[in-house]
Write the structure tokens for this entry.
Amino acid sequence: GAGVSQSPSNKVTEKGKDVELRCDPISGHTALYWYRQSLGQGLEFLIYFQGNSAPDKSGLPSDRFSAERTGGSVSTLTIQRTQQEDSAVYLCASSLAPRGPGNTIYFGEGSWLTVV
Amino acid sequence: KQEVTQIPAALSVPEGENLVLNCSFTDSAIYNLQWFRQDPGKGLTSLLLIQSSQREQTSGRLNASLDKSSGRSTLYIAASQPGDSATYLCAVSPSYSGAGSYQLTFGKGTKLSVIP
């Protein structure tokens, strides 16, 4: 596709349920990032993928959060046993490379998660 | 730990006015700085990327400058239009390699309103 695509765009879930958020990056982009934006807060880094590997998972807030990327393309962020504090916009981004020419980062429109 | 501050948090100007948005960062060891625009309910759109070796970048009515040694960047918008109304965020990436090197640190943004 022309841009970074995320689904679902909106998700309301009950506390304690698991959710999966999907990201389809721009074709050919090897670097993929997940960020979280909570109400009134800045963007918070979650995880970075280079190809299928995740050299930097340092931003994942707890072991309830996990992510994978397959085929060097689509990524899934999974939140287990959701809590109300997980309510936020989850933004995916991609770039041609993490460094050097082509490292402009392109964001998707986000998945808006509400835990009730 | 890098901290990014954007002042003011909100700005309202009449249409046609030139304006400057400010971004400051505490650690001058950056790889690059990016300015983004975020419309309500949308993801982030990259506006300008300045590498650490550059002083400024221009795109249309936008001009971004970088003074790495003083930890400051400005985004200049000429002849503002109502369509420029959005939240503008700046983000820096660190200059080191290894763990954490691909994380952008964001400011909380300046919400701009251009009044017709």
Remarks:
- Chain B touches chain A through 24 residues (CB under 8 Å).
